[in-house]
Amino acid sequence: MNYFMNLVMSGLVIGTLYGMVAMGFAIIYRATGMVNFAQGEVMMLIAYMSYTFASIPGMAFIPLLACVLAVSVVLGLLIEWAFIRPMLGEPMFSRVMVTIGLAVVIRSFVILIWGVEPTAFPRPFGNEVIRFGDMALYPGQIFALVSLAVLSLAMWLFFRRSRVGIAMRATSNNETTALLMGINVKRISAIAWALSAVFAAFSGLSFCLMFSLEPEISQMGLRGFPATILGGLDSVVGGAFGGLVIGVMENLAGGYLGRGLKEIAGFVLIIVVLMVKPYGLFGQREIERV
């Protein structure tokens, strides 16, 4: 029983990373109807920038978090302004290809500036294990779990209570109609990219607090994308839930069926779910009238 619970808990921890990455995918899709394939690279860039801030003598964690979030918002706004806004009105395929090119540029930039060698990230909370009964968690893992819970609640309130959330959905459905209805599409797009960068900041910082920092962190983008599909491509909170489910499934498959099946367990789950619910667990069905 302890073995099972440890697998579940460690799966939930890695699932928080998937979930935060998935939320970044979903917020942009919900606002613009496009998939940002540079999400993993944005996460990597912010993680390395976090390392630079953390290396400043006397830098405490709260100021570090504030700096990282501020920089992430600026980075998200800059990416949207420089690369995405000029593509408004262009075919969706062209816009998606821009994000793929952006991913290559960011990855090359990070390797050029920081190198490819794994780097140990400072541990502001220490490395002492915190026990909850029979389960033990490191402070960085607790930070990741709490971050996902807070972000999920914030996004649920955002889309329930905020007019901006409704405007995001309208823009995603039909950009031209949204413009005619008086929605500031450029503003909505900028907010979505800023929020996506915030999710990347939390996921990148959480990764650094649990593992060593290396360029391969960008692979979390591709590994987190299935969580977006599972939860629903247009459901931000669903992406968080999908990340937790896939993280647990991967760990259980690796623990009981063999490590070789760990990598494909999430994709098998997605295939099964999509055969029943083509729009994901929490995705909204699109209805077209002809």
Automatic annotation (TrEMBL):
Membrane topology label: Multi-pass membrane protein
Protein's cellular compartments: Cell membrane
Chief place where the protein resides: membrane
Keyword set includes Transmembrane helix: yes
CDD domains tied to this protein: TM_PBP1_LivH_like
Keyword Ligase: no
InterPro entries attached to this UniProt entry: ABC_transp_permease, BCAA_transport_permease
Origin: domain of life: Bacteria
Entry keyword set: Amino-acid transport, Cell membrane, Membrane, Transmembrane, Transmembrane helix, Transport
TM spans (from-to): 6-28, 60-84, 96-116, 136-159, 190-213, 225-252, 264-282
Family: Belongs to the binding-protein-dependent transport system permease family. LivHM subfamily.
Name assigned to this protein: Branched-chain amino acid ABC transporter permease
